[in-house]
User: Fold this.
Amino acid sequence: MKISGIILTVLLLFSVLFQSIVIMATNKTEEQKYNVIQKDKDFEIRYYPAATFATIESKANNYRDLSSPGFRKLAGYIFGNNESAVHISMTSPVHMDVNDTLSTMSFVMPSVYNKTNLPNPKDASVKIQEIPDEFVAVIRFGGYANDQKMKFYSDKLKNILTEKQIKAIGHFRFLGYNPPFQFIGRRNEIIVSIEWNK
Assistant:
């Protein structure tokens, strides 16, 4: 009984230490730049400057079917599956547009890169894109993402914008900030482009 208690304590301490290391590493990851324009109780308005994305397209129409294969292709590109065989640092968040027509998943490229100085992908399904600046509405939630949570928070954000008379443009998209092995302190967001002239 004492041995099993010691083992359990050691495992618990190891788990806490591992999660602490993961959180510290995540905090050092370059995050896509934005300015908060307005912050309310349940949502905020942000301005995102233009950025460079590596993107894959998919016929998947749910989170699970898009996330795993999409992540593998994009991770392959930044880990050296490109014409220069260079390693490109991971950034956050991962962008996902999950819908019934054509879904996409994107990695934001580090700010030192743009479309002209990034190596070309060896995988033709990975596209390098310049994304224009935009104003977006954002709502945040914790835990692990799934289709049900994404729909719940998309609907919640949609209702807030209707109430505030703010016009949404295009699809509601998902932003994921944490690696799958980070169990605590997870950050997820739903965003949508908006008309903003204030």
